[in-house]
Design goal:
By secondary structure, the chain is α/β, with parallel strands linked by helices. The chain is 23% helix and 31% strand. Helix 1 packs across helix 4 and helix 5 packs parallel to helix 6.
């Protein structure tokens, strides 16, 4: 239910003609999530209060900290997630407070080694999954989804952060044993290099967003062998990189 992602607040609406009214609104919930890696605090993320196991797994993978096969166990305790790896290594902390730091280094060596090609109608099919009930209630959330080559929805995640939504989608896919090289990522968020690189680390060959990419996102997609699609609409889409992945 979308209501679990929201909380009620009261506000005063003032109209331009001078009228005022007290109204009840639903706001998106956000909570701090402490991620422990091999027994030590690795980072604190601020996200919607659900799918925390998926968030932790996806974040570690898309940040290039561990591969999924290195993860041995994942447990949640309230708003804490404890991830144990086979190697038991503790990576340097990358403490964040929501939006990633702009000066974060982007690995130019990341390359999606996949020959997946998608039919245009498969990409257009994603339009029906772009808006969630939670967004309709709050106008304050992002969405990330994974769509297979038949245009079927396999994962759909809502979160207050565009990056968290992607992390959770990737984490859910890995926990389900999905082959991400055979799916594309649907996003409501803008696509700078940082977001494109997260998808690349997960092995996703195509990203489609209803928003527009940044120039850094386009350049990152070109280098990573990712097809980057922006302004996805019912009537058209814009392909900015590796257009060979969409059949024409």
């Amino acid at each position: 239910m979308p209501e679990k992602y929201t909380t009620t607040y009261y506000a005063k609406r003032i109209h331009s003609d001078g009228r005022t009214e007290d109204i009840r609104v639903l706001l998106a919930r956000e909570c701090p999530v402490k991620l422990f890696l091999d027994g030590k605090l690795f980072t604190t993320l601020f996200s919607s209060p659900y799918e925390l196991k998926e968030l932790a797994v996806g974040h570690l993978i898309t940040e290039g900290v561990v591969s999924f096969r290195e993860i041995e166990n994942v447990e949640t305790e309230g708003s804490e997630v404890h991830v144990q790896t086979r190697k038991g290594k503790q990576a340097p902390s990358t403490e964040t407070t929501g939006e990633a730091k702009k000066d974060k280094k982007i690995g130019s060596e990341i390359f999606v080694d996949s020959d997946s090609v998608f039919d245009p109608q498969t990409v257009f099919a994603g339009i029906s999954y772009l808006e969630s009930d939670t967004y309709k209630l709050t106008r304050g959330t992002h969405l990330a989804a994974l769509i297979d080559k038949n245009g079927k929805l396999v994962v759909q995640i809502v979160d207050v952060g565009r990056h968290n939504a992607v992390d959770k989608a990737v984490g859910a896919a890995y926990l389900k044993g999905l082959d991400l090289s055979q799916h594309y990522l649907l996003s409501t968020g803008r696509q700078p290099a940082y977001m494109v690189t997260k998808a690349a680390r997960a092995g996703i060959p195509l990203i489609a967003t209803k928003a527009m990419p940044f120039d850094s996102g386009v350049e990152a997609a070109k280098k990573a062998n990712i097809c980057l699609i922006g302004q996805l609409r019912k009537e058209s889409m814009l392909i900015f990189a590796n257009e060979w992945r969409v059949k024409t």
